[in-house]
Write a structure and sequence with these properties.
By secondary structure, this protein is of the alpha/beta class. It has one domain (7-320): Homocysteine-binding-like domain (TIM Barrel). The chain contains 18 helices and eight strands. Helix 13 links the parallel strand 7 and strand 8 (286-289). The longest helix is centred in the middle third of the chain and has 18 residues, at 214-231. InterPro entries: BHMT, BHMT-like, HCY_dom, HCY_dom_sf. Pathway: Amino-acid biosynthesis; L-methionine biosynthesis via de novo pathway; L-methionine from L-homocysteine (BhmT route): step 1/1.
Length: 400
């Protein structure tokens, strides 16, 4: 066998399926702390990370994304996070790269290292300070032979431009996604302009990840695609949305929802939602399709099964999953056997089973962005005085 095809070659030939959510899934399993969401689990419980990678590989993922989300040194010590006292960012990132490469070798998967927004930027740190944080992570990715790099989960286009610049210094292909919706970044830069600026900064692949559900995310992709076409730019498009429904979310997506982060399960997408998403994304021209928080094995398998004809293969885990519930024809109960068909599952309107549950939430859109006093970050534990200031702000309606 010859060398593996690179990410850009694969995208030029067809669809690449990304992986699913890590920090949310590992938080539920007791390995990640909600709040800081940092990935020291790569050192503390590497087997948990390894098994999740393996699940996604079986589901059809073509890329093993090293669990390096929020693994910058400034994030590991932010607001009293003890992870930075136990481990360095370099150690966390190195462990993540080794695990991803190990599992990728079990299939034909590529590996990538990713960087995300930093507390340094939110606190008003300048370009040099922010890029210094990025360079520390990226050097680890280069040392461990990651196939390409990803700038993901950025709320501000300025910061992601700085991130792309540093990634381009390596000569590796660069993907870039922002966690924004159709209204654009947190300072009001339109989604189409964000895409153009990412592409002009040097990103080979641009799009969105996290914060919004598959269908809201595709609305953002439409705006990005229009902006890129108007500018005469042709990067590949990428979409890795939440596994939760967020039609009622505010500018910051599911973070604005009252259910974030511990009561989102009633919003979970079905596998059939992801069949629909995969088809719509493909028809829109998106060629890198994956998932973020809340996206699980069965969601990715749905993407792989929906696009099996285009990809010329089905995922390994489809061995135990007949298309469109056809395996239910083996069920003992006749009324369950009657559900063994595509028409039933495509037209189902799932119930929540919660008699007094509202269909929509009331998002807490405080309008607090980088530059606000409330967004200033620091290494010390959040003080009671700071918490009281937050409570006063909320009591006042969450407005400046």
């Amino acid at each position: 066998m010859g060398p593996k095809k690179g990410i850009l070659e694969r995208l030029a030939e067809g669809v690449v399926i990304g992986d699913g959510g890590f920090v949310f899934e590992l938080e539920k399993r007791g390995y990640v702390m909600a709040g800081p969401w940092t990935p020291e689990v790569t050192l503390e419980h590497p087997d948990a990370v390894r098994e999740l990678h393996r699940e996604y590989l079986r589901a059809g993922s073509d890329v093993m994304q090293a669990l390096t989300f929020y693994a910058s040194d400034d994030k590991l010590i932010n607001r009293g996070n003890v992870a930075g006292k136990k481990f360095t960012g370099a150690a966390v990132n190195a462990a993540a790269c080794k695990i991803a490469k190990e599992v990728a070798a079990e299939g034909d998967a590529l590996v990538l290292g990713g960087i995300s927004e930093t507390p340094t930027y939110l606190s008003g740190g300048g370009k040099a300070a922010v890029q210094a944080e990025f360079r520390k992570q990226i050097q680890v990715f280069v040392d461990h032979g990651m196939d390409f790099l990803l700038c993901e989960y950025f709320e501000y286009v300025e910061e992601v431009e700085w991130a792309i610049e540093v990634c381009k210094e390596t000569g590796k292909p660069v993907a870039s996604t922002m966690c924004i919706g159709p209204k654009g970044d947190m300072h009001g830069v339109p989604a189409g302009e964000c895409a153009v600026r990412m592409a002009k900064a040097g990103a080979d692949i641009v799009g969105v990840n996290c914060h919004f559900d598959p269908f809201v995310s595709l609305e953002t992709i439409k705006l990005m695609k229009a902006g890129l076409e108007k500018a005469g730019l042709k990067p590949f498009l990428m979409c890795q949305p939440l596994g939760y429904h967020t039609p009622d979310a505010g500018p910051q997506g599911f973070i604005d929802l009252l259910e974030f982060p511990f009561a989102l399960e009633p919003r979970l997408c079905t596998r059939w939602d992801f069949h629909k998403f995969a088809r719509q994304a493909y028809d829109l021209g998106v060629r890198y399709i994956g998932g973020c928080c809340g996206t699980q094995h069965h969601h990715l398998r749905a993407v792989a099964e929906e696009l099996a004809k285009e990809r010329g293969k089905t995922p390994l885990s489809s061995e135990k999953h007949a298309p469109w519930g056809e395996g239910l024809a083996l069920h003992t109960k006749p009324w369950v056997r009657a559900r063994a068909n595509r028409e039933f599952w495509e037209n189902l309107k799932p119930a929540t089973g919660r008699p007094f549950s509202a269909s929509m939430s009331e998002p807490e859109n405080w309008g607090v962005t980088a530059g606000s006093k409330l967004m200033m970050q620091h290494a010390g534990v959040t003080t009671e005085a700071e918490q009281e200031e937050v409570r006063r702000f909320k009591k006042g309606g969450g407005k400046h």
